[in-house]
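User: Working on a comparison across species. This one is 1,4-alpha-glucan branching enzyme GlgB from Novosphingobium album. Can you predict its structure so I can line it up against the others?
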Amino acid sequence: MKPAESAIESLLQGTHADPFALLGTYSGPDGTFARAILPGAEEVEAFSLDGRSLGTLGKVDERYLFEGHLGVRPQPIRYRCSAHGHDWLVTDPYTFGPVLGPVDDLLIAQGTHFRLFDKLGAHLIEHEGCAGVHFAVWAPNAQRVSVVGDFNDWDPKRHVMRNRRDIGVWEIFVPDIADYRAYKYHIVGADGAVQPLKADPFAFMSEIRPNNASMTAVPAKFDWGDAEHRAHWASVDSRKVPVSIYEVHAGSWQRDRWNWFLQWDELADRLIPYVVEMGFTHIEFLPISEHPYDPSWGYQTTGLYAPTARFGEPAGFARFVDGAHRAGIGVILDWVPAHFPTDEHGLVRFDGTALYEHADPKLGYQPDWNTLIYNFGRREVSSFLVNNALFWAERYHVDGLRVDAVASMLYRDYSRKEGEWIPNQQGGRENWEAVDFLRATNRAVYGQHPGFITFAEESTAWPGVTRPADERGGRSALGFGFKWNMGFMHDTLRYMSRDPVHRRYHHNDITFGLMYAFSENFVLPLSHDEVVHGKGSLLGKMSGDDWQQFANLRAYFALMWGYPGKKLLFMGQEFAQRREWSEERALDWHLCDAPAHEGVRNLVKDLNRLYRAKPALHAGDCEADGFEWLVVDDAENSVFAWLRKAPDAPPIAVIANMTPALRTGYRVPLPLAGKWNEVLNSDSLHYGGSGKGNMGQVAAGDGHATVTLPPLATIMLEYAG
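Assistant: Here's the predicted structure for 1,4-alpha-glucan branching enzyme GlgB from Novosphingobium album:
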């Protein structure tokens, strides 16, 4: 049936909501009818994809609309266009059928599709015998969606997409294009308003800032060589093995000679061997997802599925992960589902409505960061985020995710005054939709990727952060593997900043944390947050003159490595960076030429070596029976001593003297008679200390030993029998 003139007019103007109903090939009483818009053409001949001539089309409108009958069944068509002595080929996207199927529709509608990253976004595929890119985007309230890019002159009339109305997804297969093509979505809202061009929420690659178009790309790589690494972590209980994390901002760990970012392969050549040398088990990157603003450090992401272009192509990051795994190092990513920025090319009012965010700012605006909050209660939004967690595990083989700002998700009144938030249905402040989302994420990644670990940066006393997210844990249980112990960080750093003469009055800054040390599975974080925004460096937080600051820092590190919980250290702290960290420059690596700084680095290496080698120091990190106080109340001398234990392993006593006084003949209770070897002394000359100690060994009898405690130092004694 011949379409109405108004329909053809809207088609030519690019305003028709369903061009697939008018363009392409159709069966009819006179055979197959073809209609195509072919800009610039004067003559058109149709061919099958295998090169057989099928007939010609005639121009029926000067705006390059062509029609004709073909002597074959409906199928994908390639046109040879001719004008002014020039020929070119165009494969018609409107002659191809849809890529998504009814099973996809069902799962997407239910919010239970766990392979969305295989379906939405831009995928290089072969479809109905032709290579090209399949584009699919969720925009349920749009009147019309087009994909625009460098392959169609950014013209929204050229590739208006097919609307799968039941699920609000728009799709089109664009033949004969491949990777590294820039694109965005041109979206007309329900009210007819044209939105700013939108980057693809599922883009696997983006342009380098300040440009922000999405790029067609093959995510990750195919020739992985890390099966042994992944099998190892799938076979162990991460709570009972050493986990020592080196937190890295990839843009400022080191830079090239032009002060530009290292590419992933350069980072692999430098960072992986360094982490191996230092003895860490994992690298944790501050967010590497695409983000427009460098000073956000990646926490204001606009492309959750795209490794930032600052460090090269996506496959480069995959090579980095593979190289780290082959060297025995895990890779953790900082992940930000807590908020997203308001950049107009991002998710904000994506289809002209509050789609990913809440319409009401009392629910959907985060005042701390001037950002928006995901609508976790919308199943498509929750599915988008859960799939992103699965994506990094699946496509890039990352070992874990550290989830940023969990507390801001859990509470509706987070950073809000009275009247600025809306209670839940029970009248409380809990955001149960966010709780359900976090539980779903942890169930998905732990269920589908054995050995994967999630970490929560949760700064309150929310009950059950690391309890299983099932009926055993209760409704509030979130299912994380570990929680950052923010209390440890704040209390102990406050203690270390005090003059030793005053520490006797603040003894509980060290002891208090051990009252709750086993209430969750904890990581002890000395993170980037402690060395920015005027807080100075970790070394600068220590009290005293320069020598005492170094001694305090060494004693603190040794106490931390002897304290129950996994370890995390931000880059630069391992060699006592003096300046506050800035994302604009590399770390001050020249400091390692100075003995005091290299001494701290040597200490961290030895702490990691001991921590990994001695089960007493790691097997009971999350279990109360792996810890026993030896000296808890000697506030007068600012001395702390405890025992770390593990089954079938010699115990290790950790003893800290937090004053500059050398204490000889100090009586330390020890449960086993015999020799105890001094396996670590933070006052060693090798670390830049004064060299005081116990000549490598002490003898215990009658339930105690007489020990020399070096000034501002922590020692470790291992039972030798």
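For your comparison, note: The radius of gyration is 31 Å.

User: Helpful, thanks.
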